[in-house]
């Protein structure tokens, strides 16, 4: 457990940051009045997500490997971190869907049918629901985390 203490800490930080981001999106109207812009502006979440992954890897390098971390060591750390973030994703998605912005799914379903993205409400409901978002966020968190780590470690690793 001591070996993954830093990854657990940063996975919790990442979940908190995700909740704060969704709260901000909701307060800005991206889950309601300005939902047409949500599809584009929500992608800005990649900036703090990448930043947190880099901070976590640097923390691991500095405080666990005493400033000397190879590419493989960082990659393993990032994979573990990504797995913990993925494990927290369904809970994070539940808080987003039922506490922070319970109106998001009804709003996006209605709007996606209005603009013709889906032909029927049933089609939209099949895509925009908690179960689908929980599964997708879990998979995306892991895959995006591993890819981010693989790239970030090129720059963070200790060169010999």
UniProtKB/TrEMBL annotation:
- Which keywords are on file for this protein? Membrane, Transmembrane, Transmembrane helix
Which Pfam family, just one, is annotated for this protein?
DUF4199
Is DNA-binding there in the keyword field? Answer: no
Q: Does the keyword Membrane apply?
A: yes
* Parts of the chain that traverse the membrane: 12-32, 38-57, 78-100, 133-156
Q: Which domain of life is it from?
A: Bacteria
Query: By what name is this protein known?
Result: DUF4199 domain-containing protein
Where does this protein come from, organism-wise?
Answer: Sphingobacterium wenxiniae
